[in-house]
Design brief:
This protein is an alpha/beta fold and 388 residues long. It is built from 13 helices and 10 strands. Bound molecules: guanosine-5'-triphosphate (GTP) and magnesium ion.
């Protein structure tokens, strides 16, 4: 699946660059183009892979390149005012090569949180290609304003895209790491998962029926709703295989053993991917659609394993709509990606929405208290005449 990436805000830009770095490292080709949009000039300068003519400063006449300061109403306004500048850069993309757009943003701040849903709406209006979102949820320790921003942005963003991929910083935080180091490794983990998801369906020259194609990815993501992704890897043990083949003395016996082994390996990898840490932790039950992608050297991907894993995912999720296939690559490991789309049992989203509602109520209360306190502090108009 060829995607055009648009990062909005600082997190958006950094994650887009992490995807570009991942693609360079793995020799992939799923990113057709990449743009970064920000209200902060310094954040745009801090990027290093996205070329200067693909960095768009918005809101310059109002916030002078200093950012939206975690005000996502402002972020949305600035994007709406300057969206034509963003669209004119996107218009230069080789669109015939683009299967989908991916709008990436951290939802806790101002620029990405407010701007990403506005941009997604415009893209959806103008282009026939699906528009996906990638929304990053703030950590619990980031505080009330970030939770409130994320909760409001999330519910808006999900309505404006054909599918919202979610990543929860809170679930991926590691203690003892500086925030910067933490983000770098989190962005890499995310890139690895998206690399398999979008890289699948880009396999040239191999048209085996079992290879995942772009339409399977799009049909899984593309009917709206929230998507979470699981991932697991295991090394391929070539020496052991060679030894077994020698000991058993015959090719047929060796193949039989290998097939059983690799079937089990694929099934257990897929289970680990689905039951381990997801990009957005959620219950498997209640998922609307799923996609199982097994990647690695073609001879190590057991077809029977993929089929069994698919049935297992069907049982666990309770949906019949489980697609699956291989994504052959040259590597010394086998990996499994499980895409869960249309997930509904997500404790973290429920919690964010509740926190946001509560902090809204508390803010109203505080504002009222503050008005009373200020009135108390100052003498009244009868006691002291104001200047004008
Ligand atoms: N996963 C990940 N999350 C990040 C990263 N940088 C920031 N975040 C998260 O994204 C949220 C939004 O932060 P920014 O992207 O800096 O905000 P912004 O969109 O630039 O908005 P303003 O600075 O308020 O204009 C933060 O609350 C963090 O939770 C990153 O590199 N990776
Ligand atoms: Mg910023």
């Amino acid at each position: 699946v060829k995607v055009a990436l648009i990062g909005v805000g600082q997190a958006g830009g950094k994650i887009v660059e992490a995807l570009l770095a991942h693609q360079d490292r793995t020799g992939g080709s799923f990113v057709t183009d990449a743009v970064a949009v920000n209200t902060a000039r310094a954040d745009l300068r801090g990027l290093d892979r996205i070329p200067a003519d693909r960095r768009v400063l918005i809101g310059g006449s109002r916030v002078k390149g200093h950012g939206a300061g975690a005000d996502n109403d402002l972020g949305a306004e600035l994007m709406a005012e300057d969206v034509d500048e963003v669209l004119s850069v996107i218009d230069e993309f080789p669109l015939h090569a683009v299967d989908a757009f991916l709008v990436v943003a951290g939802l806790g701040g101002g620029t990405g949180s407010g701007g990403a849903p506005v941009l997604a709406r415009e893209l959806g209006r103008l282009y026939a290609e699906p528009v996906y979102g990638l929304g990053v949820l703030p950590g619990r320790d980031e505080g009330g304003i970030y939770a409130l921003n994320a909760a409001r942005s999330f519910r808006t963003f999900v309505d404006e895209v054909d599918g919202l991929l979610a990543f929860d910083n809170d679930a991926w935080r590691r203690s003892g790491e500086s925030l910067g180091d933490g983000y770098a490794s989190m962005n890499e983990e995310l890139a690895r998962r998206l690399g398999v998801l979008f890289g699948a369906g880009e396999v040239d020259g191999r048209v085996a029926e079992t290879v995942v194609d772009a339409s399977e990815v799009i049909n899984t993501l593309g009917a709206g709703g929230v998507t979470s992704i699981g991932y697991a890897v295991a090394p391929v043990e070539r020496e052991k295989r060679g030894l077994l083949a020698r000991l058993s003395g015959g090719d047929a016996a060796a193949t039989a053993i290998d097939e059983g082994e690799s079937t089990n390996r694929v099934v257990s990898l897929v289970r680990r991917a689905a039951l381990g840490r997801l990009t957005l932790p959620c219950e498997l039950r209640g998922t609307e659609r799923a996609l199982v992608i097994v990647t690695g050297p073609a001879d190590a991907i057991s077809r029977r394993g993929v089929e069994r894993a698919r049935s297992w995912v069907e049982e666990e999720t309770g949906t019949m709509e489980v697609r699956g296939g291989d994504y052959p690559v040259d590597s010394d490991f086998v990996g499994a990606v499980v895409v869960l789309s249309g997930v509904t049992d997500v404790p973290r989203i429920r919690e964010l929405q509740a926190t946001a509602v509560e902090s809204n109520r508390a803010a109203d209360e505080r504002a009222a208290d503050h008005d009373t306190a200020l009135a108390d502090l100052l003498a009244t108009d009868d006691e002291l005449e104001p200047l004008f």
